[in-house]
Amino acid sequence: MDIRPLKPLKVVEGRRKKLAYTQRAKDFVRQNPRLIKEFLNAVRSIWDSKVGAKAKYGTTTVEKLKFSRDIKKFFLVERAGKKFFVKWVSTDFVRGVVVSSIEAMREAEGIIRKHGIQPMQYEFGFEGKNGSFLVSRFYGLKNLNEVSDNAVVREADRRMNAASRELSEKGIFDLERRNLFYDPRNKKFIAFDLGFES
């Protein structure tokens, strides 16, 4: 697991869409010019399918992951030997989620690290009229709700409760079990979905 400070994302805003990306993501998209189009086509084809459904367009494979609901869906994307975790949010549900989520994670970084929780490094974000999505590396880890070791869950709860008290003073919320991954090899917790209270 990467414990370096979060890399900043450059935000570019147009009339109809907004992008946020690290230099690494920008380089990867340039090297794989059809990636975003293939990803969007694959997502559309499995949008209403069951969890575990897969679609391949060109050289991009997309799988629908657990915990997908009507307003939020999660996907595993594979391209050029790399794997990415994607959170998609319906624009009907919320606008401005990409930049807000990125800013919330950066604002929370010092607090959650102090309590032994690693922040997720977002690599790419997109906001448009049909939806918004955030992209990070795929770690292949279990969500805390899937962890059966009670001692691990109790420790996560202790850390989250301590961090949440400080985060609430900054208007940051959603540090919950459903938004935490667990890395058993390195005994680390990784937060992947924080936001500002509206």
UniProtKB/TrEMBL annotation:
Identification of the protein by name: Uncharacterized protein
Lineage: Archaea, Candidatus Iainarchaeota, Candidatus Iainarchaeia, Candidatus Iainarchaeales, Candidatus Iainarchaeaceae
